[in-house]
Specification:
alpha/beta, 5-stranded mixed beta sheet, 5 strands, 45% helix
Length: 253
């Protein structure tokens, strides 16, 4: 810093840097959004710049994004209409989760007759051990309306490593209940080799009466789909930076 912010060297392509300028550096568009500064500019391991490096190009090529997400959702998503970052329908709004929760990435889409969304929480090297946020009665209200949580699981859901996953899941349900979309779901996205994230996903699914009520994908699954459906050199650059762990293994030898 400040060179990292001026030149946006933490971001992989000119297109992605343009998206960051629009979404992060434009004070009007970024108002109220919780972009972590300076790490979004100077931290190579932060999940926030990772979001832009993976989804920035897709946000500018919605035809490619549509093919990728149609594949990953087995056709449930037909046409991606927009991709946003650090999105909340209303921070602190009692109609939703009454807190400052937001989705790292927000995919809006259309099917033949319905308008929907996919709210995504992205992790990279995080261990999900953060101190849980203050519990709000609104969480319990949404959870009761949804009815997909095991009765014994409440204490687990209120604590680390599950509380943030739970709050984002509740935010997705509250957004659908509010009527802005016909359907919507929450997705947890992480690297395959992050064992703590994988364990948290397994723990979270065990708290559900219906495991299909929650989706989790690996970064490898998404990058493979982007590559399969015509992603350009940027997806190779993304994979090289974030997922080429064999480099570490070679160095260790």
């Amino acid at each position: 810093m400040p060179d990292a912010e001026v030149r946006l060297t933490n971001h992989l392509t000119d297109n992605i840097r343009d998206v960051v300028r629009r979404e992060v550096l434009d004070p009007k568009r970024s108002a109220g959004k919780l972009f972590g500064r300076p790490r979004i500019f100077n931290d190579v391991l932060s999940s926030q710049p990772l979001c832009f490096n993976l989804f920035g190009e897709l946000s500018l090529d919605l035809a490619l994004a549509s093919r990728v997400f149609a594949d990953l959702t087995r056709g449930r998503i037909a046409t991606v209409t927009a991709i946003g970052f650090e999105h909340s329908p209303g921070r602190g709004d009692a109609r939703y989760t009454d807190d400052r929760s937001a989705f790292d990435v927000f995919i809006e889409y259309e099917t033949a007759r319905r308008r929907g969304f996919l709210g995504i929480e992205v992790k990279y090297n995080e261990a999900l051990g953060e101190t849980p946020a203050e519990h709000r009665t609104r969480y319990d209200e949404i959870a009761a309306n949804v009815g997909c949580f095991q009765g014994f699981a409440t204490a687990r859901l209120k604590a680390s490593p599950l509380q943030q996953i739970w709050r984002d899941h509740l935010l997705a349900h509250a957004l659908v209940q509010g009527g802005a979309y016909d359907e919507g779901s929450f997705l947890f996205l992480y690297p395959r080799d992050n064992a703590r994230c994988a364990n948290a996903v397994a723990m979270y699914r065990a708290c559900l009466t219906e495991p299909s009520a929650f989706d989790a994908w690996t970064l490898e699954e998404v990058t493979d789909a982007v590559r399969l459906h015509g992603g350009g050199p940027w997806i190779a650059a993304f994979t090289d930076r974030y997922l080429a762990f064999e480099k570490i293994e070679r160095t260790a030898k």
